[in-house]
Hints:
Layout (H helix, E strand, L loop, with lengths): L3 H6 L14 H15 L1 H5 L3 E6 L2 E6 L15 E4 L2 E7 L5 E6 L4 E7 L2 E10 L2 E7 L4 E9 L1 E7 L3 E7 L2 E9 L5 E18 L8 E19 L1 H13 L3 H6 L1 H10 L6 E15 L2 E15 L5 E10 L19 E11 L1 H11 L10 H13 L3 E10 L4 E9 L6 E9 L1 H12 L8 H11 L1 E2 L5 E7 L5 E3 L2 E4 L3 H7 L1
Amino acid sequence: MRCLLPIAFGLALVSPAFGQTVDAEGAARLSQDLSRYIGADAIANRVVTIAPEGNAYRIMLEVNMLAGLIPPEAKAKVDVAPFSVLAKPLADGKWDVSGDGFPAGSFEADGPEGRHFMQWSIADGKFSGIYDSALAAFLSLEGTQGGMTMSSRDPEQQMQASTGRGGFSMTGAASPGGGVDVTFNQTAADFMQTVQITGDAGGPSVPLTVTSDNLQMDGNAQGYRTRALLDLLAFGVAHPDKGKLAANEAEFKDRLLAALPVWNRLDSTYRFDNLKVDTPLGAFLAQSMTGGFGMDGLVQNATITYKLGMAGMTMPLNVVPAWTVPLLPTDLDLNVSSVGFNLEAAARKVIDGLDLNRDPMLPDEVVNSIAADFKTNPPKVVISRSTARNADTEVAVEGEVTFPAAKPEANVTVEIAGFDKMIEKLHAASKSEPKIGQYLPMALVAKGFGKALPDGRTQWVVQAKADGSVSVNGVRLKGPDSSSEDGAQ
Length: 489
């Protein structure tokens, strides 16, 4: 929210400044520019006002006046403090933008499960940056806060969250292939979130409390088509109803195509330091937890990636049997991707097939064609080297899963360091837990199939084919399914 608000005010700064004189006439021109993106009524009704203030323009947003846009059936209540920024024109055409404070407020509305309520406040917020109208992006933007609190409730849960001091920063630059390359960073100290989950049928509620000494989020966008998206927004505002849009359908499609691929690549990561999750079962701890998500834009061979990392994990002793504790991982590093989405072809089929004079506007044959393309050329799942380790052992997995003829086919390599120590722990545990003895023969059989590597690891190359056959290190453990054999005859 802290970052999006100053960015939203960039809509008013679509024209280069070039050291223009700050006066009422300039404020009127900025208002006219802004009306292209939010509508003339918003200016006329003073939802947004622009006025000279010294050598800058004060741009004020009355958020509460936007409540009139919410459908009456939602029975919504909005109470948000006014928010403003100062925009100073610079000689090189850019704008120096700054602001003190971020709006506190609350929102309440009906939802499918019942009434929803949210309230928030941000203390001592400040930000400043340089906005480039030519790029429709901030070249630099940074801000700080003294703390944040937020609470929400609905029929299923109640939540309270808070952070201590923090800040954010952003940079933007022209991308070589078009659009804007953006980086983003945000930090917050003393993160705490408490969630009270309501039990079913009047049962007891379940409390969860998450704390972290420090929360950090990073992100970057490559080739974000900011200008094309602004042009698309302006076109939508100029054609506010379906009839006007349908009458200019060809231009609408041209503007949609001009915005492709929207971005080339988006990536984001987050990190919690000294994470603690208190539950009725006890506390789950981690020295750090990191996560990541990334996705390409609407391109021909798009990739979506997921990452999860945990270091120094511990869990309550009563959650798992005592004999399993020495076998549990203390560190995780998981990396999975989905590769091969032809999102560009799907987007172009949607745009080409769109008919604003029909109902539905997107014919079923277009939807079915996109689904058929997906089935014919499904993406593959790629497991980049992922590990689970503790003091004595490490399990590493990598490989890929494809879907020829809509059936999964896997080629996965598993390597274990310290496999003998794992067997020793199972043997020691079997003395007090006789049932564990049944796992020992299976572990020894698995070792027999393994390949000893020079570094002491044991390796298994597992191949599971679409016909149902399975082999390990070249040795077939299972033949094709009977239906596959019958089909081959």
